[in-house]
Amino acid sequence: AEKRHLIMMQQFDAEEKNKLYKFMPKELTEFNKYTNKKINNPLSLALYIDVKTDLQNNILANVDRMTMANSLEVRSPILDYRIAELSAAISPELKIKGLTRKFILKKMALSYLPKDIIHRKKSGLSTPIDRWFRNDLKDMLLDVSKKSPFLDYKEIEKMANMHFSMEKNLGLNLYSILNLHLWYKNYEKLE
User: Fold this and answer.
1) At residue 115, does pLDDT exceed 90?
2) What is the pTM of this model?
3) Using H for helix, E for strand and C for coil, what is the string for the chain?
4) Mean pLDDT within 175-187
């Protein structure tokens, strides 16, 4: 279950990674560090993995950057450690009932909020990554990709051309590639 969940969260499947990487670092193939032997329910384990990966490394960081860039201060009161611990202890059957997610939270909120607020469609903050890679970041992506010691430039160029021509939307994939390269460049300087 945890392997399936992590695979769903990735930008590239195994076949794409094999084409993209000149060699496959061992760390990119190991899932063990995100497993927790004390958790035996698939939903609880998926939520645990989300907290350990996507929430702290992606969602919170990006929301903070985007809101601060627009002079906004966002708070996440439900992430208070006491509430997070209580939530982790709640039975999975109360978290999802049928197709209703956050079942117990919505049930409790009915006492305080109008129904239309509780059941409205989720909306988030999105960045124009797709457009950036067709315009502003196009040259930068191709330039840094040529210098990568571990990524196959021809494969990146093929993906980039599919994105530029709008044959396929690969903005998030290209964003991952660019970030990986920039991280590596920065990491290399630290050594």
Assistant:
1) yes
2) 0.56
3) CHHHHHHHHCCCCHHHHHHHECCCCHHHHCCHHHCCCCCCCHHHHHHHHHHHHHHHHHHHHHHHHHHHHCCCCCCCHHHCHHHHHHHHHCCHHHHEECCEECHHHHHHHCCCCCHHHHCCCCCCCCCCHHHHHHCCCHHHHHHHHHCCCCECHHHHHHHHHHHHCCCCCCHHHHHHHHHHHHHHHHHHHHC
4) 84
- Scored b (16 or more CB within 10 A) or e, 24-47 reads eeeeeeeeeebeeeebeeeebbbb
pLDDT at residue 164, as a whole number:
93
* Gap between the Cα atoms of 46 and 34, Å rounded: 10
What's at 57, amino acid-wise? N
Q: Facing residues of 101 across strands?
A: 96
Backbone angles phi, psi at 91, to 5 degrees: -60, 135
Give the distance from CA 116 to its chain's centroid: 28
Q: Which residues contact 51 (CB under 8 A, 6 or more apart)?
A: 84
Kindly report, residue by residue over 72-102, the tens digit of the pLDDT: 888 887 888 899 899 989 999 999 998 888 9
Per-residue pLDDT of 27-45, as tens digits, reads 555 555 666 667 778 888 8
Q: Which two tokens stand for residue 175?
A: 């964003």
Cβ–Cβ < 8 Å for 118, 109: yes
Strand partners, 97: 100
